[in-house]
Amino acid sequence: METSAYLFEVIASLSGYRHALRRQALGLVGPLVANRYLLWGIFGVAQVLVSLAIIAMFIDYGRAGVYSVWSDALVGGLEIASLAILWPVFFAPSVYRRWLEASAGEAVCAGVG
Fold it and tell me: What pLDDT, on the 0 to 100 scale, is given for residue 91?
């Protein structure tokens, strides 16, 4: 059940990102807002991977009666990575904001955006 919710989150956020890029080209949305949709989608992908890793972890537990080090490390690593991806969505550092603004300005100058 949890995996399907994260799959919906991935689809919705990446669709929102696509629409935000269109709005960004018109000057209605800033690059930070558009990038938040992308980061939220990547977070959703990471959470789907966590859900699948938990399934493997429980299968391994069912066979041996203990959690293996590799499955525990995989789940923990994916959880930490997903939280690291989500951090700039809410607390974007100024360096990150300047990088997004500069890359958006370069895309407009090149005629991409």
Answer: 92
Cβ-count burial of 109 within 10 angstroms (0-12 exposed, 13-18 middle, 19+ buried)? exposed
> Do 86 and 97 meet the contact criterion of CB atoms below 8 Å apart?
no
On whether the CB atoms of residues 71 and 49 are closer than 8 A, the answer is no
* Cα dihedral 52, 53, 56, 62 sign: negative
pTM: 0.82
Q: How far apart are CA 1 and CA 90, in angstroms?
A: 26
Got the DSSP string for 50-91? Answer: HHHHHHHHHHHHHHHSS--HHHHHHHHHHHHHHHHHHHHHHS
Task: Look up residue 80 and give its two tokens.
Answer: 């930490």
What is the pLDDT at residue 67? Answer: 87
